[in-house]
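Hi R.,

Here's the chain you asked about this morning:
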Amino acid sequence: TETVTEDGTYDLTDNIDVTKLPEGTTVKDVTPADTIDTSKAGNYTGIVEVTYPDGTKTIVEVPVIVTDVPDNTENSPISTVETVTEDGTYDLTDNVDISKLPAGTTVEDVTPSGAIDTSKAGNYTGIVEVTYPDGTTTIIEVPVVVTDIADNTENTPKAITETVVEDGNYDLTDNIDLTTVPEGTSFKDVTPAGVINVA
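And here is the predicted structure, written out as tokens:
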């Protein structure tokens, strides 16, 4: 019996023990083309021709077993980078191109909770599990980039009314509710001269 893995190569001529045959005996594989499909696991029958020194010949059938290669060893899926803005949502299951994998392959996000913090810009690593039709699985890391949103687009400062007596002085820089802006924000009064008349 000849055993070969899917997509492997085989040699049927060494399946005949010529040491027990007359010296000078030769073996030739005469299996018709396409009889043995190594792309599909299964049982096949090969044919060899044994030629003896006197010119006589014998045809011998050789059982051939093509064994299945697990999907997770014959496929190497590649992930692409997932980019998400701060506080945004993401989907890692579409970061693996399953069009190049066996039909019926599924992808599931198995990233541990808290591993990706979308509230903070930075680089993270997600994890997806690829499950093949034969039940085997592969774990793949997915790079995740959380991009920063400019503070002036994600914050809406709230102004506090400034009350000033006639002919008095005012300072507008302390009229922003600090709970509505990030720590470290600075303020500058850019009111054009003459717009506010306290006289």
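One quick note: Residues 173 and 187 are 5 Å apart (CA to CA).

Cheers,
M.
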